[in-house]
Write a structure and sequence with these properties.
The structure is a single chain. The protein is about 30% helix and about 20% strand. By secondary structure, it is an alpha+beta fold. It has a five-stranded mixed sheet with strand order 2-1-5-3-4, covered by helices on one side. β1 and β2 form a beta hairpin. The longest helix has 16 residues, at about 75-90. The termini are far apart.
Length: about 120
């Protein structure tokens, strides 16, 4: 069933029940993710994909779209939340992988650059 949602004020048409992070990506809206893998059930544990859905901040990887849903991705408050979450992940000190540093294929570093 085709439905309509709104992402940052723009109308988006999609299928009911799809994952918000996938729908946003197809609409050209970047939502950073770390723990999300489309082939596995979403856990929403890292919260880096935090967005506001109908006024409530939630993990976009764990939200299924529904008719009339209003989504905010690029609000300054949400950018600050995502930045703080990434900073906490770096400060844990568990990010010690010289191989990705050499290859440049580190998702955490890439998201770190994206969220500034």
């Amino acid at each position: 069933m085709t439905i309509g949602i709104e992402i940052d004020g723009n109308a988006v048409t999609t299928e009911n029940g799809r994952t918000l992070v996938d729908v946003a990506a197809e609409a050209g809206v970047y939502i950073p993710t770390l723990c999300y893998l489309s082939e596995h059930p979403a856990l929403g544990t890292c919260r880096v994909c935090s967005v506001r859905v109908d006024g409530t901040v939630t993990a976009a990887c764990a939200v299924k779209v529904s008719e009339g849903m209003r989504v905010e991705v690029n609000a300054p408050e949400l950018a600050d939340i995502r930045k703080a979450l990434v900073e906490m992940l770096f400060s844990e000190g568990n990010h010690n992988c010289p191989s990705c540093e050499k290859s440049g294929r580190c998702t955490l570093q890439a998201v770190g650059y994206e969220v500034d």
